[in-house]
Amino acid sequence: MLTCKVSTQDPTFCALTKRLDKELASRHGTLQSHYDAHNVVEHMETAVVGFVEKKGIACGCFKPVDTTTVEIKRMFVAPNHRRKGYSSALLEELEVWARTLGFTHARLETGKGQPEAIALYQKHGYAITSNFPPYVGMDNSVCMHKSLYM
Length: 150
Hints:
- By secondary structure, this protein is of the alpha+beta class.
- It has one domain: Aminopeptidase (3-Layer(aba) Sandwich).
- It has helices spanning 11-28, 86-100, 115-123, and strands at residues 2-6, 47-52, 55-64, 69-77, 105-111, 127-129, 141-147.
- The chain has a seven-stranded mixed beta sheet, with helices on both faces.
- A hairpin with a 4-residue loop joins β3 (55-64) and β4.
């Protein structure tokens, strides 16, 4: 997989996140509507798209939370390209990029209905933590954090 740093306005990134939204809606049904507003990413220059044979198949991004922490967002790998290590490669690239920019911690939110995502993040050193805003009180959310200097 070849990766490219892009903005969240990049057409390939946008197309992949639309596929992600569709998959989340099919997995979580009407419950997903409670999360949709939190999945919107404003214009950011910290996104990555993965390509196989010149076709965009994976994406992710991060946004600064404060001067030390980023939040990993919009991680997605097309279903026919899963279980090939692409999500790990994207996550590692995002973490290295964040670390290069001076961030020391990363956090993220995923859903209880996404056990493969939880396993991926735990494999990469993320620990489950109490829900951070805006996910406080949202029982389907699983919030995780990691030091980028592990």
